## 1
Amino acid sequence: MHVVHLYPREMSIYGDLGNTRTLAARIRRHGYSPVVHQHHPGGRFPEQAHLVLGGGGQDSGQVRVEADLEHISDRLRALARSGAPMLMICGMYQLFGNAFITVDGTRLPGLGILDVTTHGNAKRMIGPVVLTTELGDVVGYENHSGSTTLGAGQAPFGTVRAGFGNNGTDRTEGARTANVIGSYLHGPILPANPAIADHLIGLAAELATGRPFEPELLDDAIAHEARNRQVRRLVRR
Ligand code: GLN
């Protein structure tokens, strides 16, 4: 299964690299073979891609990857259309939207795969998060100045139960279109929420093999306990 990590040098803060490691480890535990590609600015995008990942970064990191992202945009859009699962966190989530307008007014155009628009603010949204999503309760950690608005008809990734989410006002978090998920959640998100990892792996397995995903039963007791504790600590019932 070919996994492509976009811009691991520029866009991989708050442990987002852990998402790639989690996927590689779980793909192996499910009995498949992962091939992890790191895509750097100016590099050749891998021929095969069954799962694409991107992480968070400083505004300056986003500026550094912008030209390359434009260069590989047709390929990424085609992959998204063909159903390749993708997980874009924070800074890369913003760049998978229509645009990120930084706090000093610089407009970084995005891919428009997700119908979201982000404006940088002087105030940052920082702290632990709990979401309700179609994939169950999700926990993570956010740190962004960008305030994101969903276009009409754009589904969020989840509903905020604790934390700020896209903008601190409408209780939406992230965005989800077909198999593409964008989210502000670091943590990193996948080791803390193995259900999301397996959702992505299942889709990628079907794409890679042309057959239904055959998962192994994995022991995620520690991840579940950690997640439940974060939910109990942050959500008042
Ligand atoms: N630079 C962006 C912001 O502050 C993204 C931050 C991040 O990826 N953590 O909104």
## 2
Amino acid sequence: MNGSVKYIFITGGVVSSLGKGIAASSLGLLLKQRGLNVVLQKFDPYLNVDPGTMSPFQHGEVFVTDDGAETDLDLGHYERFTDKNLSQKSNVTSGQIYEAVINRERGGGYLGGTVQVIPHITDEIKSKIMRAADENGDIDIVITEIGGTTGDIEGLPFLEAIRQLRFELGKQNVLYMHLTLVPYIKAAHELKTKPTQNSVRGLREIGIQPDILLCRSERPLEDEIRKKISLFCNVEKEAVIEALDAGSIYEVPLRLSSKGLDKIVIEKLDINCAELDIGWWEEMVRRIQSPGKTVEIAICGKYVHLFDAYKSIIESFIHAGAANDVKVNIKWVNAEMVEKNGVTEYLSDVDGVLIPGGFGDRGIEGKILAVKYARENGIPLLGICLGLQCVVIEFARNVCGLDAGSSEFDQDVEHPVIDLMLEQRNRSKMGGTMRLGSYPCEIVKGSLAEKLYGSVEINERHRHRYEVNNNYRETLKDNGLIFSGLSPDGDLVEIVELQSHPFFIATQFHPEFKSRPQRAHPLFKGLVKTAIEYSVSSAGKAHQKASQDR
Ligand code: GLN
């Protein structure tokens, strides 16, 4: 595309959790598949500098980028939909904005002026919005999602900043898309447009007239309803777009495109681009929707009632399922319940087990029991981060006979087979100080890891403070644990596996951050493939039969 960079802003109204992130990602994909160079970013109005210090209860998963930023989980969707790796700069919070302005003030940067929300905070927001285009190469379109909901006090400076940008850059270069809810009221048998009207009124009071309304609804929006919304909200009827609940998030771009979203965007922004080329995505969605068979994989963790905490893992299973032509049913297993009720009740009928990452000691013993059960019964297992640490503790205890643990949970444990990394010992700040982001890992030839990756050199993303204690490497190795992936200097254990088991592998890094719908991650793909084999094998059948007989 020739000409100036175009900016699209996505705001949300009425309630949160309407799927702004998926809407932004979908639009990103559609524009990319029209040959445009698109970058996505998210601006979050909260005061934390990043979500790295927030609990999963507050925030869901913390998504880690290659360059080690701890970001909002929507960035995971952006990366998965547009297949573009994002950076630290793609997630900006009020905390970062205020930090920059206050630091400048302390440095005397405002030359005696009074520092104010308008213009100093809004200027900082605008400069951070625009840098996405400057620093990502030849960008045609910057899509910026504004977190929160219209009407939130803390979101006002962001809305003011994007209002100013349209004024400064011109209508042909800035587009506002607003996501709202059109609820169905059962008692009245009617879809209601009032919440949307109110939300748009709120935006217009700030000076933002949306160009496109995406209306989330559980029922189709009849013409009459769209006409009404159009009239009251001052948005053309064609630009009032129905966004029905979808079975899979990967279906959303197809649906939105069928309602004309990408066409309207390029018309409004006067963009010259190619026709939409999305056949391969349709094919992928078909595979997700009509799988050949089903396998059941347990995720044994601590936040199992909070699906957002494991977002990228769930998506990785969808990708790996599509790649293997199966549907992966996730069985959520609360590690604390395993501790309480024993493992058999939860794992006797599954075809695979995943132990996810986590912090703190809650549920740890349950996870260790789950590892032991998978190891002893030949059930395919993948451990991630804390999952690897549980694998090592279990092996040290039950195979090497050590009274082993992690110093994260017990400072006085006799054999701390998992210990704080050296560089972490003198850290006093908690935010952004873990071993974060992409690091190289060298894989041992002939290992399961090499077979899965088809390579001996990989790069994966990390988020941890603890590691395998090298003082125990020899004992663990002598007893049969294979260290199949190490940091290039050999100092950090990155992958462990067992040979005498169909699929037993654990990683200190987080493979889930790099899985893509079109490129399922090799470890997830391998786990699902072996789970299929296990489910039809005599071991799997016998195992499940035994549990039914009990
Ligand atoms: N708590 C562990 C550590 O800090 C594991 C972290 C994780 O699973 N992301 O090393």
